[in-house]
Amino acid sequence: MSFWNAFSITTRYAELPRSFFTYVQPTPLENTRWVIWNSKLATQFGLPEEPESNTELLSSFSGEHVPAVFSPLAMKYAGHQFGGYNPDLGDGRGLLLAEIKDKEGNSVDLHLKGAGLTPYSRSGDGRAVLRSTIREYLCSEAMAGLGIPTTRALGMMTSDTPVFREGYETGALLVRMAETHIRFGHFEHLFYSNLLSEQKLLADKVIEWHYPQCIAKDKPYAAMFDEIADKTAYMIAHWQAVGFAHGVMNTDNMSITGQTFDYGPFGFLDDYEPSYICNHSDYQGRYAFNQQPRIGLWNLSALAHSLSSLIEKSDLESSLEKYETRLGHYFSQLMRKKLGLLSKQEGDSRLFESMFELLSQNSVDYTRFMRALSYLDSQDKQTVVDLFLDREAATLWVELYLARCEKEDKSAEIRCKEMRRVNPKYILRNYLAQQAINKAKDGDYSEIKTLSMLLASPFDEHPRFESYAQLPPEWGKKMEISCSS
Ligand code: AMP
Ligand code: MG
Where is Mg(2+) bound in this sequence (predicted)? Predict the structure, then answer.
């Protein structure tokens, strides 16, 4: 009897007509073995804490023996890439294996990235390399640790299969979990292919599976779009507040449930540089850090256009018009918590603006600055001032800030304690990911494990790992991350 029979496994997506997907079996890699298994996430689904405790786990996820309860399939979608419509997309190397329920009964997709060729592979090889798989694993878990909506990583496997990119690399597999793998691009594909009754069906299923609260609304489809817009604003507000740049905000990388999705050449800000571009193929800076809120709206407008036969124009416009206010609201809530200034007072906007100006002019490390503010109960203001070149301006700002803190109805101890719960000490700096990758290439996965542990609780102090919270070394600043994955 299969180990999987004890689980509640379905594949609701396969209820959709065959024009939405193709059944594809994974093509196994050579000598697949675990690199890391996310024990904590696994146990939320009743899966084993130790992957070695059950050999079926590896053979199921490596594609060696696909369990009968899985229905691996490649989804068809399209999308706007760097502003241009590409009808020719779909799961080119990933497969939806099945859906599994967590202990609360919520269904989650089990997806295998790097699983081999599909009808949507175009000129690709259907594979993912170890380097990019490590980056996605670490970043999705870092985002989850930070409380930012994201897909998750259940486990990662390596192999002896060579995969060619700029040179030969190692083929790897990622087991990804997500509320859904339905993207903005699913709706765009059906619209531009003039499959409007299929599109209505997809909207009905999206509402049934992900937005059941919309069913009872006067206009369920308009309510669904409004929810998608709201969740997108919420997600991007979190990116901006923590200093995360996604790098490839194409509409095929936008989840319809507002989870950060498809990690590629992402980057966390080191120095506060608003126009930071983490994707080195992004010559125009379309997806620069400070463009993300605007691109979120652009992407939602593309989705709205594709839904125009299902939802009245005025309803679509009304949700789009609300987007900026919503994002601003979420962002200012997050920044208020980060600064410990919860009450709204005159002059706050100016204080916030001057902080961002100073950070940018002085190239101050964003994460270390925020964390330093959250220690001003026990440490001298000079610890913050010393982060700046222009100490005079910094002193002035910190004095204004501390005077403003006095107007909060809270002791400095409590304020700072709360601030330390929202200002991470540990983020996934590019150089840290690179160190883990370099070791993994030699078969040493210890750094991946250390980083996973730290990033799962980024707000806690980990005295033995102080060096992971320091400024990047010279070689680790402004790293060029290969876009190939
Ligand atoms: P991404 O840049 O990873 O978001 O991928 C964009 C599109 O290219 C998606 O349709 C992917 O499935 C596809 N793709 C990316 N890499 C590969 C690959 N190595 N083989 C096949 N398809 C790929
Ligand atoms: Mg993608």
Answer: 253, 262
Confirm whether residue 328 is marked as ligand binding: no
- 93-119: per-residue pLDDT in tens? 999 999 999 999 999 999 999 999 999
Q: How much is the mean pLDDT over the chain?
A: 97
pLDDT class of 483 with cuts at 50, 70, 90:
confident
Residue identified by tokens 């507002």 is 258
Residue having the nearest C-alpha atom to atom 1 of ligand 1: 262
What is the spatial distance between Cα 231 and Cα 327, in angstroms, rounded to a whole number?
Answer: 9
Atom of ligand 1 nearest to the CA of 94: 12
What is the C-alpha separation between 368 and 311, in angstroms, rounded?
45
**Is 125 a known ligand-binding residue?**
yes
Q: How far is the CA of 246 from the centre of ligand 1 (A)?
A: 16
Instruction: Pick the ligand that lies closest to the CA of residue 247.
Output: 1
Whether the Cβ atoms of residue 292 and residue 239 lie closer than 8 Å to each other: yes
Looking at the chain, the whole-number percentage of residues with pLDDT higher than 90 is 97
Q: Which residues contact 391 (CB under 8 A, 6 or more apart)?
A: 385
Q: How far is the CA of 133 from the centre of ligand 2 (A)?
A: 13
Residues known to be catalytic = 252
Residue 167 assigned as binding residue:
no
Give per-residue burial for 96-111: e unless 16+ CB within 10 Å, then b: bbbbbeeeeeebbbbb
- Tens digits of residue pLDDT in 126-159: 999 999 999 999 999 999 999 999 999 999 999 9
**Can you give the residue ranges of every domain in the chain?**
3-181, 185-337
Sequence-ordered alpha helix ranges (H) in 340-429: 348-361, 366-373, 382-385, 391-406, 412-420
Q: Is 92 labelled as part of a ligand binding site?
A: yes
Ligand 1: residues whose CB is within 6 Å? Answer: 89-93, 120-121, 124-127, 248, 253, 262, 264, 485
Distance CA 182, CA 16 (A): 12
The whole-number pLDDT of residue 1 equals: 83
Using the 8-state DSSP alphabet, how is residue 95 labeled? E
Q: Where are the alpha helices (DSSP H) in 93-212?
A: 130-145, 184-192, 196-210
Spatial CA neighbour of 420 closest among 470, 370, 359, 348: 370
Residue 89 CA: nearest ligand 1 atom is: 10
Q: Under a CB-based contact definition with an 8 Å cutoff, are residues 272 and 369 in contact?
A: yes
Beta-bridge partners for 156: 36, 174
Ligand with smallest separation from the Cα of 172 = 1
> Which of 27, 121, 127, 481 for mutating ligand 1's site (highest number of atoms within 8 Å of CB)?
121
Residue 455's pLDDT band (boundaries 50, 70, 90)? very high
The pLDDT value given to residue 328: 98
**pLDDT reading at 482 higher than 90:** no
